[in-house]
């Protein structure tokens, strides 16, 4: 999977494309008559470029060059850059939110432990990389939500998936008498967690340090009483 939370600016970054599972191989070595491989390369390249340079700062020519393909081959899969972006949101950014948040929250012993673990894992990853590019979903939300209703709908859907994963765990724990910190409002608390993380990582991106995430995590632990 393409790692989007921590995209490097330099090739010698500890989380370089060489260490992104499958991506370097797909980008560097085009395969003839492999339409799915080409589609994957295009989405990998576009996902990284949108995080590094923004949607507006990425051209079709950039994607063609980095994906080692032709304009005609690209157009066969994605006639427009907008279609590439919508696929990136659904298949790359959505997958990143799924592996970073949804899966960990669902697998944790408790939802509170899962939430804390995500914060700690992201902080650790960003500290190792010494570079903060922000939340991939939040980055695209800030750039594209007011630009186009289709982008807005796709982005809102991924936020909804994220929130609902947390909400489901809270509801399940409330039914057994725990998760009192949610105040009887699992949906509201899930929104609070997503907003807290999104805001903290945006400030961390602006300051290029993880202190905002660490401060918010410390406050969150007080709320949910996790040591």
Q: How would you portray this structure in words?
A:
This protein has helices at residues 23-28, 35-53, 60-66, 71-77, 81-107, 111-129, 136-144, 149-175, 186-207, 211-224. With 227 residues, it is mainly alpha-helical. The protein has one domain (17-224): Tetracycline Repressor, domain 2 (Orthogonal Bundle), CATH 1.10.357. It is elongated and about 60 Å long.
Provide a concise account of the structure shown.
The chain has 227 residues and is mainly α.
- What is the CATH C-level name? Mainly Alpha
Number of helices: 10
- Helix and strand string, N-terminal first? HHHHHHHHHH
**CATH structural architecture:** Orthogonal Bundle
CATH level-3 fold name: Tetracycline Repressor, domain 2
User: Could you tell me the radius of gyration in angstroms?
Assistant: 19 Å
Which overall shape is indicated by the principal axes computed on the Cα atoms?
elongated
Structural class: mainly alpha
What's the topology here?
Elements lengths: L22 H6 L6 H19 L6 H7 L4 H7 L3 H27 L3 H19 L6 H9 L4 H27 L10 H22 L3 H14 L3
Keywords:
about 230 residues, mainly alpha, elongated, Tetracycline Repressor, domain 2, about 0% strand
